[in-house]
Design a protein that fits this description.
Elements lengths: L2 E5 L8 H14 L4 E5 L5 H7 L2 H4 L4 H5 L12 E4 L2 E4 L8 H6 L7 H6 L16 E5 L7 H9 L2 E7 L2 H20 L5 E8 L6 H10 L2 H4 L13 H7 L4 H4 L4 H14 L10 H24 L1
Parallel strand pairs: 1-5, 1-6, 2-4, 2-5, 6-7
Antiparallel strand pairs: 3-4
Helix pairs in contact: 1-2, 1-13
The structure holds adenosine-5'-triphosphate and magnesium ion.
Length: about 300
């Protein structure tokens, strides 16, 4: 059974995209089929997964959501590695909330897309994958974010140990509750994931304690907190996940442990080390770059 998971938080810059990329790559390294969907007009996810694509792609998520135009275009699904696909975003997505307003199935466009039958395989798009991650734009209750929630089974809430994240929490819970009750969508919070975690800061420890109270925050806290590392920012500049760029960094290990937790068992083969998964990610990356430069030269 596939799981569709949105990365959502009111607050900007709280590692939604970083989590989408690195959790996606970790699950792929553990043998899962993964689709990453970029719904944010900033296109940060697309830029990390394949910078050239959204400049050239004939079809992106925008054409598909935009009223009627997508159906005549190829499906906007591209492959980074075998088993790791992505749906590129578009800067035109900055218009999508206004455009969705005029559609009568306005909250369901993205769900409809993921429920489409792929003409090649005869399988629903979402069922072609074990995990579909939807990277949401910051800014709370927009029609696009509602589309993401309606299409999702779960939400992961990346949370920084700071006061702004805490202040945004009641709004987020209220939003998800409204989608639940008014649109009758069973989406629930899979968990809060503490990011940029630094155990030496008292605010980090206090925020962790707050989120550990499941009754108060209405959902569990992931048992792994993602530590802070400059490797995150560096890897993006090289269009890489942490596993390709710095597989031995503590943050790569954190995301791998979150992935293992999601799978529900210790999924990492015993012989695997950060060096080994770096080798696998790197050789896939080298093949990808080679293929891409071949297709650019053609
Ligand atoms: N664990 C971490 N340690 C250090 N820096 C991090 C960490 N996680 C993310 N960052 C950095 O924080 C910045 C914001 O991260 P990211 O773009 O993932 O946030 P976002 O929630 O997707 O932002 P937006 O709301 O704009 O879409 C980036 O520069 C990223 O490299
Ligand atoms: Mg982002």
């Amino acid at each position: 059974m596939s799981q569709v998971i949105s990365l959502l938080h009111d607050k900007g810059g709280c590692a939604k995209t970083t989590t989408c990329v690195n959790l996606g790559f970790a699950l792929w390294l553990l043998g899962k089929k993964v689709l990453l969907v970029d719904t944010d007009p900033q296109c940060n996810l697309t830029d990390t997964v394949d910078k050239t694509v959204h400049l050239e792609a004939e079809s992106t998520i925008y054409e598909w959501l935009h009223d009627g135009q997508g159906e005549s275009l190829p499906l906007p699904i591209y492959t980074r590695y075998d088993g790791l696909d992505y749906v590129p975003g578009s800067h035109s997505m900055s218009n999508i909330n206004a455009e969705l307003q005029l559609m009568y199935n306005r909250e369901h466009r993205l769900a409809d897309f993921l429920n489409l039958i792929d003409p090649e395989t005869g399988v629903r798009i979402r069922d072609m994958y074990d995990y579909v991650f939807i990277d949401c734009a910051p800014g709370g209750e927009t029609l696009m974010n509602t589309n993401a929630l309606v299409a999702s089974d779960f939400v992961i809430v990346p949370t920084e140990a700071g006061i702004y994240s805490l202040q945004g929490l009641p709004r987020l819970l209220d939003y998800i509750n409204k989608v639940h009750t008014q649109l009758r969508c069973p989406v629930t919070i899979m968990g809060y994931l503490l990011v940029r975690w630094n155990k030496n800061r008292s605010i980090s420890r206090e925020v962790k304690e707050y989120y550990s109270n499941e009754e108060e925050v209405k959902a569990p806290l992931f048992p792994v907190s993602v530590r802070e590392s400059v490797r995150c920012t560096e890897s993006v500049a090289y269009e890489m996940s942490l596993f390709e760029y710095a597989s031995n960094s503590p943050v790569a290990d954190d995301y791998m442990r979150v992935a293992e937790y999601m799978i529900g068992r210790k999924a990492r083969p015993k012989t695997w080390t950060p060096v080994r998964w770096g080798q696998i990610a790197n050789s896939a990356y080298n093949r990808f770059i080679k293929e891409r430069s071949k297709s650019v030269n053609e």
